[in-house]
Amino acid sequence: MSQQFHHIPSLLKPEELITLDVLIQKANFVDGKATASMAAKEVKNNQQLDNSSPEAMNAIQQLLTNAVMSSPYFNAAAQPKKIHPFIVSKYGPRQFYGWHVDSPIMGDPAIRTDLAMTIFLNDPATYEGGELMIQTSGGAVAMKPAKGDAVLYPCQFLHCVNEIKSGERMAAVTWIQSNIQSSEQRQLLFELNQVHAALNQRDKHAPETNLMLQAYSNLFRMWADV
After folding, report:
1. Quick one: CA dihedral 176, 178, 181, 185, positive or negative?
2. DSSP label at 93?
3. Torsion over CA of 202, 206, 211 and 213, rounded to 10 degrees?
4. How many separate helices (H) and strands (E) can be counted in the chain?
5. Can you give the pLDDT at residue 101?
6. Fewest CB atoms less than 10 Å from the CB: which of 94, 139, 181, 204?
């Protein structure tokens, strides 16, 4: 997988998934084309949770947002500045989302979409097809991880959801404006963050631990979009 892609295992914990399942059952689904824009509207064939159930939707948004913002991995990889409200989507047999690129600006107030994230909400063994496909310079990458896992990736790539052959695919998607606009710089900071964490576990007071933190902080300060 490309170094700019991040598979985040167990972003949602089992108890959060149980609560989410109950909340989703209380809400209605509508045609997913309602939130598609530009060429995406022509290739989008799914359903999404209707905002007309505010109590359930607010609880879903709070649960997902809390889970995301409490994830050290997500915060290190995304360096989030703003997060678009989540959209919960459902795909049944013969439904899909064809190849498209996400809008560069979304929401009101608007955010710049540096990153997209899909959180998978059901067991991949319960549906056939439905892989998240991302087209990279090295070819298409297919992702279909476990329930509760997430995939975080730059919005610059064409991507699609393969047609569902049987079963049902449920996912929550969002978009992130990062404090670090460049995907290359963001990835370098993530790698330095991981090295510092390893050094910190070994000896938090060692000179090399402090030097790594200094380098990370100075690069972040140089590149931060604030």
Report:
1. negative
2. T
3. 50
4. 6, 17
5. 93
6. 139
CATH of domain 6-178: 2.60.120.620
What is 97-115 written as a DSSP string? EEEE---SEETTTTEE--E
Residues of the chain with pLDDT under 70: 1-3, 36-40
Contact residues for 118 (Cβ-Cβ < 8 A; gap 6+): 132, 143, 150, 151, 171, 172, 173
What are 143-172's pLDDT values in tens digits? 999 999 999 999 999 999 999 999 999 999
Tell me, what amino acid is at 40?
A
Q: What are phi and psi of 72, to 5 degrees?
A: -60, -40
Please tell me the distance from the alpha carbon of residue 3 to that of residue 184, in angstroms, as a whole number: 9
For residues 159 and 99, what is the distance between their CA atoms, to the nearest angstrom?
Answer: 5
d(CA 166, CA 91): 10
Q: Residue ranges of the domains in the chain?
A: 6-178, 183-223
- Tokens 């490309």, residue located: 2
DSSP-H helix ranges across 26-159: 40-43, 54-69, 72-78
Q: What is the pTM of this model?
A: 0.93
